[in-house]
Amino acid sequence: MDPSSGIQEPFDLIRLSLSERVFVKLRGDREITGILHAYDGHMNLILSDVEETIMLVDVEGAPEGQVNVAKRKMEMLFVRGDGVILVSPPSRT
Amino acid sequence: MSTLQGYVDRRVLLILQDGRAIVGTMAGFDQKSNVVLSDSKERVYSLEEGVEEIPLGLYLVKGDMIVLIGEIDEAIDSSVDLSTIRAEPIPPIRY
Amino acid sequence: MLIFSVFKTLTDQQVTVELKNDLSITGVLKSVDQFLNIRLDNIKVSDEARHPHMMDVKNCFIRGSVVRYVQLSAENVDTQLLEDATRREAMNQVKR
């Protein structure tokens, strides 16, 4: 483990992402990006300036296998931790 | 779980994990939010016909199954003709 | 505990709770408990034409476990305070 980065355990990665834009993958084919302001041990999150992307598979009328996406923006969002699959720190936009 | 106290003896709507909607009078509850309803009915929604009410009588609903408990405004409720309402059933909870 | 405290500071504010059955309910946050069960007053369901099931409901209790999101108004949230509190709680976790 790299002691200089201050990352010893997974949650450190999230702690160091506070006030940064993060990418979050959620259950139900959803992804969000937003600025992380709070989290807890359940991975409940509070983010601002959020953009959510929902992948819609098998939309009626769409060609087989095509993925449609729906996007929406929210200014401040609480995300319940049980839906979180991964939290990824900035770098990727 | 202080928050259910205000619903005792009131007409309530329960929405369950599988999407069912049940109305009844809240006879009681416990700290696990298990709920006993008296004079309860399931409201079955469909797009083909109006809402069908199926009498269930005295009903115990396990807390784990409950999504939402709503207090029914009886004035609004009695002014609504359920037979004219067509809607898709509420989707089940998907984790 | 941190998130519970945050929600307590949001009582009497308008929020939109999105459930895992895709129902979205806007109302005034009246109370919250440690399971993040939520009491909303003066509720309105988004897309009421599609979801008329709750048109006769004026207030409700929502089980925390079925919540997907809660949309908040940014002006009601002090983000600096949140980050400081989160760091403090993270420190305490390490010490334990």
Task: Give a structural overview.
The complex is a heterotrimer of chains A (93), B (95) and C (96). Chain A is mainly beta and 93 residues long. The longest helix of chain A is centred in the N-terminal third of the chain and has 6 residues, at 10-15. In chain A, a hairpin with a 3-residue loop joins strand 1 and strand 2. Chain A has one helix at residues 10-15, and strands at 21-26, 30-39, 45-57, 67-79, 84-88. Chain B has 95 residues and is mainly beta. In chain B, 6% of the residues lie in helices and 44% in strands. The model of chain B has no long low-confidence stretch (mean pLDDT 93). Chain C has helices at residues 2-9, 79-95, and strands spanning 14-19, 24-32, 38-45, 57-62, 67-72. In chain C, a hairpin with a 5-residue loop joins strand 2 and strand 3.
Features:
heterotrimer; A: 93 residues; mainly beta; 5-stranded antiparallel β-sheet; 1 helix; B: 95 residues; globular
What is the gist of this entry?
The complex is a heterotrimer of chains A (93), B (95) and C (96). Chain A has 93 residues and is mostly beta strands.
Helix-strand blueprint:
The complex is a heterotrimer of chains A (93), B (95) and C (96).
Chain A: H1 10-15, E1 21-26, E2 30-39, E3 45-57, E4 67-79, E5 84-88
Chain B: E1 11-16, E2 21-29, E3 35-44, E4 52-61, E5 66-72, H1 74-79
Antiparallel strand pairs in B: 1-2, 1-5, 2-3, 3-4
Chain C: H1 2-9, E1 14-19, E2 24-32, E3 38-45, E4 57-62, E5 67-72, H2 79-95
Antiparallel strand pairs in C: 1-2, 1-5, 2-3, 3-4
Tell me the radius of gyration of chain B: 13 Å
Strand order of the largest sheet of chain B: 4-3-2-1-5
What gross morphology of chain B would you assign? globular
What does the largest sheet of chain C look like?
5 strands, antiparallel
What is the number of beta strands of chain C?
Answer: 5
Distance between the termini of chain C: 15 Å
Mean pLDDT of chain B: 93
Globally, the shape of chain C reads elongated
Structural class of chain B: mainly beta
- Would you report the number of β strands of chain B? 5
CA-CA gap between termini of chain B? 23 Å
Mean pLDDT of chain C: 94
Main sheet record of chain B: 5 strands, antiparallel
- Run of helices and strands of chain C: HEEEEEH
* Helix run count of chain B: 1
The portion of residues assigned to helices of chain B is under 10%
